[in-house]
Amino acid sequence: MKATRRIRADRRPASAHGCSGGHAASGVPRHTARRLAGRIAVQCRRPACVRYLLAPLATSLVAIPAFALPQQDALRPAGIQALHIVRLWNLTLVVTGIVFAAVLAVLLVALVRRPRAHETTPPDLRGVHHPERRTRRFVVGASGASVVLLAGLIVADVFTDGALSRLPIADPLHIELTGQQWWWQAVYPPDHGRPGFTVANELHVPVGRPVVVSLKASDVIHSFWVPNLHGKKDMLPGIDSRIEFRADETGTWRGQCAQFCGPEHALMAMLVTADTPSNYAAWAAHQATPAATPQVSDVDAARGMQVFLQAGCANCHAVQGSPAAGATAPDLTHLMSRTTLAAGVLANTPANLAAWIRHPDSFKPATTMPTLPLSDADLHAVVSWLATLQ
Ligand SMILES: [Cu+2]
User: Fold this and answer.
1) Are 310 and 303 in contact (CB under 8 A)?
2) Nearest Cα to 231, choosing from 122, 343, 79, 124?
3) What residues are neighbours of ligand 1 (ion), with CB under 5 Å?
4) Which single residue of 55, 120, 280, 301 has CA 20 to 30 Å from 322?
5) CA 127 – ligand 1 centroid, Å
6) What pTM was estimated for this model as a whole?
7) Is residue 53 one of the residues assigned to a domain?
8) What are residue 324's DSSP bridge partners?
């Protein structure tokens, strides 16, 4: 994942490097890393292939994104479903670990006690005339133990499955999640008097309340996977399924599409933020409000909205509260309340926003978002407007 992103990042326009700023994650300051890249490229004239190998390696040091998404970690459960799974994992690890150590120990004993012989030693025919009772008993015993242990793991697996399906789901939060190439659309239907709304790529859920996510795919097979909260569930076009989980700890957890869905599959991340119930309620209430109309005094933003409507952005994107009502791309109503752009590919800053709109295909080469020919002034205006969509 990281490697793909680094390689991709090489193709980014210069402005994207500038604005993401700071130090590379490895602690190498960017300018040092860049100089290093240059030096390696210059010194390795011969053979040329070495230069071609080393230069991208060194530039990849430069291009590590300066923002860090939270780690996804199946071994660090933040909810009851992930806890059931991690317990099964621990049991499997211990059992198979003991078996592995036992096999190695027996192998070692066999090596140490192996019969030593040379050319003149007569053949040892004891085993032919007298059956090796002890050895046979040992093999039968070890095979029996393997069967019992494997059967035990199957039973544990079935119990885990049962526990996963027994999550109490009284009064759950419903989310309708659709996998798209290559981003996530999440519709929150009306809930306890709060109107419905749509967001992209970044979900929020309240801690302690069960969540039922209905899963759809609009184009190809995707897979929902937020390992800190639950296992994987495929999203199949034409076959709706659902996944149920509960977050028991506040925090932001990373998810990733887990089924190859096309060239940008690796760049299809998701964030799930588990909030306290009151913070969640505040977030949801805010998401359900339409975007504020730009102030007339904010000339740039007001013009930006016009550019957005006229340049074709509104054919795909919706901004509630404006005439933009496209339905095939991320809803941008509260764009600035998200921390990332394009499914976790870029930190959400005005500079990255401009870089993305200028050349979306330099970040996600196969993206369906077109590169529209906007003048610098129009681009500036559009970004000014989008930046008001708090
Ligand atoms: Cu995918």
Assistant:
1) no
2) 79
3) 222, 257, 261, 265
4) 280
5) 58
6) 0.81
7) yes
8) none
